[in-house]
Amino acid sequence: MRRLLLLFISVLLMIPLLSSAEEAAVIPPDWLLLGSAGNTASAIRRSRSEADIFMDSLTDVMREELVRSVLSENDELILARMLWGEDRENPMFMRAAIIWCVFNRMDQSRLPIEQLINQTQFPGYREENPVKDWAIDLIRDVAVRYVLEQNGFTDVGRVLPKEYLYYEQPPGKRYHIFKTRLKLSDKNNKIWDWSLPSPYNE
Question: What pTM did the predictor assign?
Answer without folding.
Answer: 0.78
